[in-house]
Amino acid sequence: MFLETILKFEVPIKIGVMLGGVMTAAAYFVLLERRMAAWIQDRVGPNRVGIPLTKIRLFGLGQPLADGLKFIMKEEFTPSHVDKQMFRLAPIVILTAALAVFAVIPFGSVIPSLVDGEPIELVVAPGIDVGLIYIFALSSIAVYGVILGGWASNNKYSFLGGLRSSAQLIAYELPLGLGILGVVAATGSLNLQQIIQHQANSGLWFAFAQPLGFVVFVTAAFAESARLPFDLPECEQELIGGYHTEYSGMKLLLFLIAEFLHLVTAAFLIVMLFLGGWHFWLITGSDNDIGWFTALIRVTVLCVKIFFVVAFFMLVRWSWPRFRFDQLMSLAWKVMLPLGIFNFMAVAFIDQIGRLFIVPLFSDEAFGEIAASWMMVVPSALVFVAALFVVAKMHPHVADNRPHRSFSPGIDSQL
Amino acid sequence: MPEYLLPILLFLLACAALTVGMLTAGTLLGPKRTSPVKEMPYESGMDPLHDARRRFDVRFYLVAIAFVLFDVELLFLYPWAVANRNPEGLKEFFAGSEAAWHAQLLVFGEVMAFLLLLALGLVYAWRKGVFRWR
Predict the structure, then answer these.
(1) pLDDT (tens digit, 9 = 90+) per residue, B36-71?
(2) What is the predicted ipTM?
(3) CB-based contact (8 Å) between A75 and chain B?
(4) How far is B17 from chain A (nearest CA, A)?
(5) What is the pLDDT of residues A18-62, one digit of tens each?
(6) Which alpha helices (DSSP H) does A153-277 contain, by range?
(7) Are strands A110-111 and A120-121 parallel, antiparallel or unpaired?
(8) What residues pair up with A110 in beta bridges, in sequence order?
(9) A68: nearest Cα among B16, B34, B29, B12
(10) Which residues does chain A have within 8 Å of residue B6's beta carbon, measured at their own beta carbons?
(11) Residue of A10, A132, A344, A365 to mutate, interface with B, max B Cβ within 10 Å
């Protein structure tokens, strides 16, 4: 009886688990980021806040809660010079869109059925066949939040920050889409669960099958989540705070959470599209007929992978300098976009050749597909090396790359 | 509305409720104080000279137009990428004959030609200096 009641409330429970988990993860990733920054800069970092009214410190694990409480008690201030409705709408739009993405992102594989029947899929909305398009559409709404915030603030820093940020976000959306397209072309599905299943079946993660697409996608994901070395939307030293200069209190918190959620989304997508999702060789298996133990292992593997990707993001943040805006745009349009198109063509070609010539060699078609995908690792690696070589040749390393004002209208020799 | 879309709707509502709830909590619990200086735009201590919404660089428009062009072209490729792996409809149409394969290869060639045209467009924009930020 009890189990049937749980089944009835399956969707609300999943929504609660997902929202709670994601918000907690975002809060504790902030703490992790601060501790990591401290570690890299040889300081101690926030390690004081533990249980209130006692001397128990818990390595600073109370810090996110204290921060959240502080933000709630701060004044909710709207300056008089702003466009009030837009000003209030911007953080709501950006955070709602950033949260809503998680409706189609699985947080594990499946768990055995509680009563009888089908195993329960660990995703809020299973069976959405346009999952990736949905994610893509909602992540584009982030641009609206940024522009609304920057425009409504009526502040020159916010305005410039909003413009820059929107230009960056839309420029890097193209390589992001091209990176995803390679994976979609190799699996024939836009559903994240099926993409993970495909990698689990063949045992070949797409990071190895499409190394060039992986690099393009990770770079674009860094830019889309506005992390260093691409954090030009904020760049505290130049624009004070970019599009959220005028924001304070809870509205600022919403912007900051949204930014962290973009990072978490990027980590989820990198893990699921290119690093095999919940799959790990030998310990997770690949079919859906599993017990509680394997289900738990799969969730753990997924979480560990995401943790490592997020830690990688943070390590990069504290070890790389920021790009200049013209470098950022050249990287997007002159390096990443051509590489993305080239990668997609190469992937489509290799895939087609594999299915034309290699799959028919085997009597079992499913096995032939797996063998073909493994054999295509070598040409993909060659494509990767060739692309890196061409990029290195086309963009020679020069010491003085400061921007200069070109006085001759028309085509520059350097372009 | 199909039943499998219901969770997404619920999730969207839950997200919006969470966001608005947080804002409301902040409004209810925070103090309310204001002063003339606090009402001013923050521009590092300088008195703001004029409205911030003025003309800005035309290159932002160029990038936006280039983005719209390429993004729309990319959207065409998603259906093809899915359909290329799931050729059941084609096989049914050609009743399982060899022609299904040939049709698929023809479409493949067309998509490659389309991508080449796209790359040519990129080269054209590049030569025209759309992506030059200096």
Answers:
(1) 877 777 777 777 777 777 788 888 888 888 888 888
(2) 0.89
(3) yes
(4) 9
(5) 899 998 888 888 888 888 889 888 888 888 877 777 777 777 788
(6) 156-187, 192-202, 206-209, 211-224, 236-239, 249-274
(7) antiparallel
(8) A121
(9) B29
(10) 11
(11) A344
